[in-house]
Protein 1
Amino acid sequence: MKNKQTFKSALLFTALFFLSVTFLSSCGDNSVSSSSNNNNNNGTTSSVSLSVKTDEGALDNPASLVIDEAKALITEVEAEQEPSGTSQHIRIAPFVIYFNMGGNIITIITGEIPRGPYNKIKLKIHKPEDTEPIPDPEFREGSSGNQRYSFIIKGRYNGISFVYKSRKSASLIIGLVASTNLQVGSANFTMLVNPLTWFNNGTLDPSNSGNENEIDDNLKNSFRRAFRDDDKNGLPDDN
């Protein structure tokens, strides 16, 4: 009887020992995971936002043209470092720029990128794929390539309503007015866009299909410049 009790006690001790080891090992794994997560946020990145503003001169529309609404589908935004030319993603998921035609500055995305000197902003105006999820269904009317759009503009030309839909995708590289060295804290970059150039100051009829190539080129070229603008007043900060 005594041997049986001794054997049971030994079994109980062994079981408790392995339970203790398992528990301590589990706690140790959680501690390592938490420490690893903290190391990923060790102050080597900066918070950035990207804003857009219609250029001041674009607010004086010619009598022939009134733009009521404009939006572009963007699939990727990067900031390029100098002198290496390395690009850092600010966002890679599709989103829509809804342009404020009254000239107000609007923030379109925020993100985290490594600290360092940057001299370019890169983005892609994007015609969606057949089944690609998009935040605004108006950019895709069907499965055909001719039913998917990257840029949509609504307004009136010589008093007649129009909806212009661009089918072109384009990669844009916009040089910063002055190189920005991101350090502690957050930063904002503002892009200026001139809507008047889209239809060549009102001389290009958006309903004329013969003007599509020129209008599409104008859309791409209307993203004129970008600059550091932390106070978001639409003017370059002193760097």
Note: Confidence is low (pLDDT under 50) at residues 1-41.
Protein 2
Amino acid sequence: MRIHTYRLQSGIRPTPEFDKKGLAQFAVNVGVKCGHDCTYCSTGAMLRCHPAFKQVGESPFGSGFSVVDPDTPERVAGDARKFRNRRGIVQLCTTVDAWAPEAQAYGLGRRCLEAILAETGWTVRILTKNAAVANDFDFIRKHRDRVLVGLSLTGTPDKEAVLSVVEPNASPISERLAALKKAHRLGLRTYGMLCPLLPGIADAPEQIDRLVRFVADCGAEEVFAEAVNPRGNGLKVTEEALRAAGFAAEAGAVGAIRKTAKWSPYVTGLIANLQKSMRRHMTTAKLRFLLYPSNLAEKDEARIRTADAGVVWL
């Protein structure tokens, strides 16, 4: 992993898009390229014009590298004080991961938490794919009312080998599950993040049901879910990686949804299966399925709108 450093301009910034999703009013990001190197990641497509990539000499669509700002916590501390009359939920992070390997090297997750929580009025929503967040549960317990712990759950343990191909540097799914369970056992606030639920890997009814039951048992206050983001070349890269690793069936399922004709029923099925599981183990009032309808077939969109419990239309 090639680790590059780059000085960002912001610490805490408003995030209207994540506010619409019901996740947070503010965001903190500790870099522009995460070392987890997930094949389906859409961050490169979203940040492709960011000057950091040109400065470090890397393609935003490349792999094998990360771009991190070790000084982020200092700017976060200043911004946490500055927003005196406008405070709320801060998501750590929205485009990268504050507990990815390169972020861990600088202690960025904990340092950012300390910087934000030193000021009253802030709540932090943690989202990570790394079980190393559990190393900071001692600090989080001191502020348990102001921190929401979430680990991105992208499959069940029986799919660990497949997930290791598409999320090569993230914690194994079994370790993420264990970290969320530990958070609940310690009395921390938790939420579910089932995202992305890739076809052929995590979209079967029984897999969705296991994940929903798990986050329910972990005391999840809400359950967010989403189809894989088709933006950029992530689906193509994911399909190729799975095929090269010998997972032909999973590769075929991912490759199929690159076409709208397959994408639309994939999303429709995800919503229906999540609603069913939420009714069984929790309530659809706690479901937040984040849906961009632009790639839906007209008939599928109409079908979803007639039964859209828990759907957040974006």
Note: The mean pLDDT is 97.
Protein 3
Amino acid sequence: MPELPEVHTIAEDLKKKITGRQIVEVYYTGEGQKLISKTGQDLTNVLAGEKINGVKRKAKYLILDLGGENKFLIFHLKLTGRVLVRDGTHPADEFTRLVLKLDDGRQIRFADRNGFGEVFLSANVDDIGPGLGPDPFEVNNKQIHIILGKSSKATIKEALLDQSLVSGIGNIYADEALYLAKINPFRPPGSLSPDAKSRLLGAIKAVLREGIKHRGTTIDSFRDTDGRPGTHQFHLLVYGKTGKPCKRCATAIEYTEIKSRRTHFCPTCQPKDQLSFF
């Protein structure tokens, strides 16, 4: 599932490629009707003539600012969604569900293998993703102490995946951040000392920046707007490294599941004895 670095990569690509362009035609293809039934919006006749004034990211949402009347076009990629920018002569992309034709002959194509993604209009960015917590890059040490202190989750891994606490972190980067901060994923959020919370926040920001630097992590379906995979999967520290030696201590990385979410950690660098208060 695309997380903050992957959505950031797409947003930055779109800023460069489509800002200032005008949408001239919109149509659904393949199983695109599922998008209509999911959102209750048919975009076919409401976007023609709209100018794309800007692109930004909110958590894991892509936002196209269409200017007038507070109109925003929102893409939520969910598990396998892709936003591709193609020349009009480019061959059809598999699983394409929505096409936005631009005034320069190019197309924005929304493709989604699993069909969980959404594309919809919103009048207010603040209404997008109600209940979302702050962006990790906007959180300071004092705030992370409060945020984690109020979490009711049983484990710190679950707390990091709770989008109402901090938004944009998914399974991959949660594992990476906990490893970097040397915190056991089973540890209760309330048991973390102020120093551990600050260390974790620094680790979260560090792993997200690395993911952005390498244009995202492609484990399965993520692609950028040109259809190219990211490269951060070649730089991961623990995620997907079951049985391989820890880069710090050479202990074999262990695999477990927390609430059915794949979890990877080093039993030496992130010992279970952290579960007791200290």
Note: The helical segments are 4-18, 33-39, 141-149, 156-161, 171-181, 194-213.
Protein 4
Amino acid sequence: MSQPARRPDELSTILRQLRSDADLPGMEAARRAGYSQPKISRFETGRQVPTTEEVRTLCQVYGAPPEVRDRLLELATDLTGGTVRSRAVLSHGARYMQQRVGKIEQASELVRSFTPTLVDGLLQTPDYVRAMGSHRLAGEELESFVASRADRQQILDTDRQFQKIITEGALRWHVGSPQIMAAQLEHLIKASHRPNLRLGIIPWTRPVHSPALHCFTIFDDRAVIVGTETATAIITDPADVADYDRRHTFYSQYAVVSDAARAVLAKLADEYRALA
């Protein structure tokens, strides 16, 4: 899957506009902030996420209004690397983590993911979400989780670009019931026609000589979210983000897309309907 051209994200766009409004060349802005010029460039092209302290420094150099500074701090905070343990997610409510991920998606122009164990969150049906979450949540908390996932999915109706790779093994992981899975596969077929979504399926018949240990999602070239059984990690180190970029490119070469992907999905849907 080739990477489509994209507009810069909100954080880097605002930083670049502030410097332009201040009539400062990159070299001079770097000197006043005490940073290197390449660092300023990485902030403005989305290749590096500034810390909140770096945002404050740049806003002071550029004379940014308080409301603009606060927005930049909010964006930088949402993209800050770290690890959130599953117990912490549950204690805050599952909706909390969904909202944080949603903010990162809103601040990105290109979202790429690889999911070898389950259907990508933006492409899950409510019944699939409910069945998947029922082993840890119940009642109002479960329904809040389902609703927050639906809220996040509205981003598919924007002009942002998405590249999603799902393994056939993930689609054969029988969540809930045959009826839920058949409906989920039909939903994926419908979603694959979206002009801003490139959905790739890796068939189980295709040998891939590299283990797939976990799901991950890449936001532009700045951040990666990795989910495990016990924690969710937000990674912003440029070298680590670049490594996941290479991994996504590697898995992409094994995926079928368009009509070939829809043929795999239709076949699996028929198999689930036969089970029902």
Note: Confidence is low (pLDDT under 50) at residues 1-7, 83-93.
